[in-house]
């Protein structure tokens, strides 16, 4: 949990998804039987409509989101411990190779039905745009204290700290109808990402470099079908996942002194990483292949049944955005300068504390406390959908 805003902007952070605003992760409404519904206006009819409106969450995806957000927090805990430990850096590289791609793939998968209808636009604004503005402002004021920069100005065009994901998600979801229309969406998205690595002058507006380089993972989620997730949960895949992760750690350990791990952040061009320009498109393809394999392995190991932490999967956006304040406060008090933290047991303790903190921030009481910022109703700001008004009549 130790790096300043400026240094953290060099790494990808996690995020979470809420039911309507970020990743609609619900299954089709359950059938209530074939009996004819009672006439409108009766108590039975109203109860039936209420029951039909309840959607069942998929425990698998909630579990995946929770486990991924825990890895995000642990990655932040390893941030100040990397330079002194090759093993920690190797684990850091492996985690950063798949935790953000996993979140983005899931987000894309549950954005397949985004059609720019009034209701979905409203949810996009209230679930993504408004939290982005609120936390961009909040982080600016908070980091004036933690980073001793009282003159830092609010800039809604230059995402600060963890808010880059919300800015990117807003862009991705607005372009969903386009990706659902073109014939070869994934190759086209990979081409866009490859070209982005050749554009060092792109600028910081909405962290567009990172939005474009992570775009293929979102588009991959758009083109996936339920049977693809069934395939990765097969027993054979689960058996292969552990040795694949072990091989990834070994390769990362070998690569630590030979590779710049900033490639996994997907936020700079090849030239800005002191590499020849042609490295950018090549690394885009290599990293996409490696990350996709690790995401599949990660998803294969995610429990399919309800667990004690399943309910926390609905609050990962809260854990994602709020744990940044804890990190910044810990940095301000220089937690990483404590000697025992750099011992093996200290590193393990820091890892466990990070996981515990983000778990606490995903709990229902925290959700209720901060729902005004994460899930504002804002009915006053939107015209009522004519179709919705007709249904209510």
From TrEMBL:
Keyword Transferase in record: yes
Pfam families referenced in this protein's UniProt entry, alphabetically: Acyl_transf_3
Region annotation (Disordered) ranges: 29-50
InterPro entries according to UniProt: Acyl_transf_3_dom, Nod_factor_acetyltransferase
Biased composition regions of type Low complexity, renumbered to the chain: 41-50
Domain Acyltransferase: 59-362
Secretion signal, residue range per the UniProt entry: none
Source organism superkingdom: Bacteria
The entry's keywords: Acyltransferase, Membrane, Transferase, Transmembrane, Transmembrane helix
GO MF terms, alphabetically ordered: acyltransferase activity, transferring groups other than amino-acyl groups
Membrane-traversing stretches: 59-78, 90-111, 123-142, 154-172, 237-256, 276-301, 308-328, 348-366
PANTHER family the record matches: MEMBRANE-BOUND ACYLTRANSFERASE YKRP-RELATED
Name the record gives this protein: Acyltransferase family protein
């Amino acid at each position: 949990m130790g790096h300043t805003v400026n240094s953290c902007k060099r790494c990808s952070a996690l995020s979470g998804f809420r039911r309507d605003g970020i990743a609609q992760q619900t299954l089709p409404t359950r059938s209530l039987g074939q009996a004819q519904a009672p006439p409108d206006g009766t108590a039975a009819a109203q109860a039936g409509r209420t029951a039909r409106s309840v959607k069942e969450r998929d425990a698998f995806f909630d579990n995946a989101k929770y486990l991924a957000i825990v890895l995000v927090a642990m990655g932040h805990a390893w941030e100040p411990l990397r330079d002194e430990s090759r093993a920690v850096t190797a684990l850091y590289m492996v985690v950063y190779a798949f935790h953000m791609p996993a979140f983005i793939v899931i987000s894309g998968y549950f954005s397949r039905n985004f059609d720019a209808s009034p209701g979905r636009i409203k949810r996009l604004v209230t679930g993504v745009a408004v939290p982005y503005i609120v936390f961009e402002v909040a982080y600016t004021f908070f980091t004036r204290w933690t980073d001793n920069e009282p003159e830092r100005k609010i800039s809604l065009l230059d995402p600060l700290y963890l808010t880059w994901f919300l800015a990117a998600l807003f862009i991705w979801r607005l372009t969903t109808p386009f990706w659902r229309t073109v014939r070869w969406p994934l190759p086209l998205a990979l081409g866009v990402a490859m070209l982005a690595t050749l554009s060092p002058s792109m600028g910081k507006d909405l962290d567009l470099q990172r939005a474009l380089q992570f775009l293929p993972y979102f588009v991959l989620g758009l083109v996936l079908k339920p049977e693809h997730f069934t395939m990765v949960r097969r027993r054979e895949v689960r058996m292969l996942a552990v040795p694949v992760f072990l091989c990834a750690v070994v390769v990362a350990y070998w690569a630590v002194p030979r590779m710049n791990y900033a490639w996994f952040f997907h936020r700079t061009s090849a030239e800005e990483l002191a590499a020849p320009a042609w490295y950018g498109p090549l690394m885009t393809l290599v990293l996409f292949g490696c990350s996709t394999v690790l995401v599949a392995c990660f998803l294969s190991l995610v429990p399919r049944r309800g667990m004690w932490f399943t309910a926390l999967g609905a609050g990962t956006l809260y854990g994602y955005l709020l744990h940044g304040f804890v990190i910044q406060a810990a940095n301000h008090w220089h937690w990483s300068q404590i000697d025992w933290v750099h011992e093996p047991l200290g590193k393990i303790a820091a890892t466990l504390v990070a996981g515990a903190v983000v778990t606490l921030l995903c709990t229902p009481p925290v959700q209720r406390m901060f729902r005004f910022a994460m899930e504002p109703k804002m009915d006053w700001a939107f015209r009522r959908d004519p179709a919705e008004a007709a249904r209510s009549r």
